[in-house]
Amino acid sequence: MYNKEFSQKPIWQFSIGEFETRLKKTVSTLIELAVKKAFEERASEIADTSSDTLDLKKASELTGLSSSTIYSKVSRFQMPSLTRGRPLLFSKKELMTWLASGRPKNYLNTLTKKL
């Protein structure tokens, strides 16, 4: 990662130019690693949610609620959803948890209580 001359010299013996060069290399390496890690995490999140994501029709079949009821509950924060408006998307895991918990009246309040 570093030049051989940098690794053999203690930091206090660097000239300002050498220190600046080493600092730039270190910072750019850290930025590259952070960006790479962020892209990998985002890619894994997308891959995880794609198999778990339900559209309105599938959510309606899963919950037994009509489309208009689902829109109404999502707009009043009574039902968990990944998106608001159209198209509505849902996480199957969240819907199953919501159904198992007895359909709390205000889902937003249950989320804030967890935090």
Structural notes for this entry:
- This protein is mainly alpha-helical.
- It folds into two domains: 14-50; 53-114.
- The chain has six helices and two strands, in the order H-H-E-H-H-E-H-H.
- The chain has helices spanning 4-8, 16-52, 56-63, 67-75, 92-100, 107-114; strands at residues 53-55, 89-91.
- Strands 1-2 form a two-stranded antiparallel ribbon.
- The radius of gyration is 25 Å and the shape is rod-shaped.
- The model has no long low-confidence stretch (mean pLDDT 80).
Low-confidence stretches: none
Within the largest sheet, what's the order of strands?
1-2
Count of discrete domains: 2
Largest sheet: 2 strands, antiparallel
According to DSSP, the number of beta strands is 2
Shape by Cα distribution: rod-shaped
Mean pLDDT: 80
Helix content: 55-70%
- Classify the secondary structure makeup into a structural class: mainly alpha
Give the end-to-end Cα distance, rounded to a whole number of Å.
41 Å
Instruction: Encode the helix/strand succession as letters.
Output: HHEHHEHH
Radius of gyration over C-alpha positions, nearest whole angstrom: 25 Å
Strand fraction:
5-15%
Count of individual helical segments: 6
